[in-house]
Amino acid sequence: MRILILLLLLLLLCGCSDSILYNTDNTIDNNFLTLYMDTTQDSNGYYLIDYPDLESNSYTAIYYESLPWTRVYWTSVDSFTVYHMGFPVTEPIVNFSTYTRADSTGQTFIYLYQDFLGDTLSITGYVNEEINSTINFIVN
Q1: pTM across the whole model
Q2: Which end of the chain, N or C, is less surrounded by CB atoms within 10 Å?
Q3: Where are the domains of the chain?
Q4: CA–CA distance, 110 with 83 (Å, rounded to integer)
């Protein structure tokens, strides 16, 4: 009798096309990605970053919003090179990925150095192939 009840229960939970154990409706969640910085913008929409005088390097933050606990992948065409044991190592100015917090916010840091003064830099964040956002800023 117990086996029959167990089989009936499994049939009800897993046997239907509208299973309560699995998401079978194939809907896409309403994910989004918004990037911003806590600095001023010029008339073209570029954020302006003040580079600290007499510093060989510095960092700035990009803030973002998405769904809670969402992994955001980062990329940039801008990079920097260091020499390690005589060999050049080139890395993008942003880390590979970060996660949003439970409140749907997050931040990532961008590496800056003196050669970037006067340049316009670009960072792109990706949630997936369809959801991405790019932010541009000028280092003053």
Answers
A1: 0.76
A2: N
A3: 31-139
A4: 19
